[in-house]
Design goal:
eight-stranded mixed β-sheet, globular, single chain, alpha/beta, 12 strands
């Protein structure tokens, strides 16, 4: 099979069919695993550059060029989403690119998926105010659980993080969601939930969402939470929805000649099953599996069995 780890695009990926965001084009503006946290559950792997220093990690002009190239085809998208393999609010030019999208391509909604740790900085909050949707994380509201689960940069303080999440609500007029990732044994106690509920009352998000391990995480000991337990947690927290998995309603249209490179682009950021890739590429699972089998034969990718199925990732 003639292919390589070089993708057609360096800074955008997908479109991906998402349970929350529909058909979403990903924008990755960070170097791989540059983040302010080193979460035990992260599907992108261990953080290799733990930092709270905002910088121009990639060329904004290169990102805009790729967006122009892709969006010139007027694809049918529900969102353009800043996410990927690092914390997007560490990127000092994220506001410039969001403004570029909202002025040049106003027909598309823009989402930012963030850990929210830098919202205590006014300049970080200002940079993302033009987004249509911001989904921030709050996995723990006690210092002990925060340190164990999220393994933050040593200069981060939980009280300042929660204060920043509260302040962002006061400034942001569009949709603001909070995601809570449950890790058994760390943040699943009634005491921890009471701390989280108190923080949520201050933040006033438009939605609260629960998440649990669905694909391989950083630490092998992290386990998924059962559906009944998640439902009980959602009921205790109140007004909370559970992020589901399974089939999605919309699929992008695949371009046959770039299937291999799009597979590699996607799994370089997070492990996926063959079914996930079928949704991403808009082709049948057997066709995806044929390409995956070729990549395994050529020792390009690795596999890991999880409750939801076999996940594929780039070989390290």
């Amino acid at each position: 099979m003639k292919t390589s780890n070089r993708s057609i695009y360096k800074h955008i990926f997908g479109p991906v069919s998402s349970r929350r965001l529909g058909l979403s084009l990903g924008v990755d503006v960070m170097r791989h695993k540059t983040c302010s946290l080193d979460c035990v559950y992260c599907e992108c792997g261990k953080t290799t550059d733990l930092t709270i220093h905002t910088d121009q990690y990639v060329s904004p002009e290169a990102v805009k060029e790729e967006l122009d190239r892709f969006l010139s085809g007027k694809p049918d998208l529900d969102f353009i989403t800043f996410s990927g393999s690092g914390e997007p609010t560490l990127y000092s030019d994220i506001g410039d690119i969001i403004h570029f999208l909202k002025t040049r391509y106003p027909q598309y909604k823009v989402a930012v998926l963030t850990n929210g740790t830098l919202f205590y900085q006014p300049r970080v909050r200002r940079r993302i105010l033009e987004a249509d949707l911001v989904i921030a994380s709050l996995d723990a509201a006690s210092e002990q659980a925060f340190r164990l689960l999220n393994r933050p940069h040593p200069d981060l303080e939980l009280s300042a993080i929660i204060g920043g999440l509260v302040q962002f609500r006061a400034e942001f007029v569009n949709q603001y969601w909070i995601e809570i990732f449950i890790v058994p044994g760390i943040n699943d106690s009634e005491t921890e939930f009471d701390h989280i509920k108190a923080a949520l009352r201050r933040i006033h998000p438009d939605r609260i969402q629960l998440n649990s391990l669905d694909r391989p995480g950083t630490e092998k000991w992290v386990e998924p939470v059962g559906a009944e337990t998640l439902a009980a947690i959602a009921d205790y927290l109140g007004g909370t929805e559970i992020i589901g998995s399974g089939p999605v309603d919309r699929r992008p249209t695949a371009c046959v000649q770039d299937i291999c490179s799009r597979i590699l682009t996607t799994i370089s950021r997070r492990p996926c099953t063959a079914e996930d890739m079928g949704n991403v590429l808009g082709i049948s699972v057997p066709e995806v599996q044929r390409h995956l089998d070729d990549m395994i034969h050529n020792r390009m990718i690795s596999t890991e069995q999880m409750p939801r199925g076999v996940f594929y990732a780039l070989k390290e």
